[in-house]
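Quick entry, no commentary yet.
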Amino acid sequence: MKKKTLFILLAAILIFDESVLAQKPLYAFPLGVQTYTFRRSIGNDPAKTLDTIKSMGFTEVEGGGGRIAPEDFKKLCDDRGISIPSTGADYNQLVKTPDSVVMRAKALGSKYVMCAWIPHQDGVLTIDDAKKAVEDFNKAGKYLKDNGLTLCYHAHGYEFQPYQDGTLLDYIIKNTNPDYVSFEMDIFWIQFGGGDPVALLKKYGDRWKLMHLKDMRKGIKKDLTVGTSQENDVAFGTGQVDIPAILKEAKKIGIKHYFIEDESSNIIEQLPISIAYLQSLTE
């Protein structure tokens, strides 16, 4: 009887060990960060800031170096083993001078160009604003594609104004040409505007190409204003965003570039916690 019990115990230990070894990390991508996270320092001393970024384990950034020329910023990144797969562009620049957007993105070595704002009045996006954005994004997106780049629109939550049987974000996604326009999901702003990140990933699949990873303080009021305090960005795992569920769906649809963005004033304390949280997740 004792031998049988010991055998069962040993078998259970072996099974447990195998299950632990079989666990795969949920986040198995390059560690990326949005340079806006370091906006207080990167414009003044990009080299020193990139040293900090490297020391934290980041190997990708999205954005640029502020006033420094894109070629010079790329060299600083190259010297530190950091790539710049995505950069940003202003809406009006995309509309009026898309050639300058292409030149800057290529100088940085980026493949994606992210636009994070649609002009609108009094904090309310209208259907007319959305229709103009669709037209402008399709035109700019084609120009970028012809030059080897992919345009991604980054929603900020105000696009969840109701429209027909959905929202204005639905209208924008459905009416932009998939060949020319893709999207970047900021999981904080999607949820702040009333959207469900997992449901939207499932609904629109590979239209999503990039992701901003961030967590939201529990209990805050949500609306369509983009008007919450930057201090409501909290360390991963301490807020209300279901990051594991989002990452699981994002992996299914093939998103490969993820950028942590922390807009708070506590990034030196919070970023290591967020990174450790990401690295602790398993499938």
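second:
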Amino acid sequence: MENRRTFLGLAAAALLPIGLDAQTAAPRPAGDLARHPLTGPFEGFDAVLQEIAVPAGQPGASASNRMHRHTGFVMGYVLEGQLRFAINNEPERIVRAGSTFFEPIGALHSTNGATPDGPVRFLAFLVVPKGSPVVAPA
């Protein structure tokens, strides 16, 4: 429960400096729940919130190749199921529902996806350079 409060608190705090008027929000790419430009010391960056659902046994859908990077840091929260997760060729670990994960900027995503036992659904909160895609080639 503490992980959920920490994740939601950080996500909400990062979005505070932005304008909440839907008319001023940048258009959001498919898959984004929200994408907002940041201001103040975070000028030049966007806060992005995504919900990702992956069928049982499948790799993450963010890239046709499982190996990829993100253009900003990623803080994630698993809503349902179990996420297979590894960065920078570290040993794979399982992140269960109710748990969080973190990826530093530019970390190589060497494994991500659902376990064979069932689908996974998770939220990903990213801070990326303004207007940039969230996924970059490995």
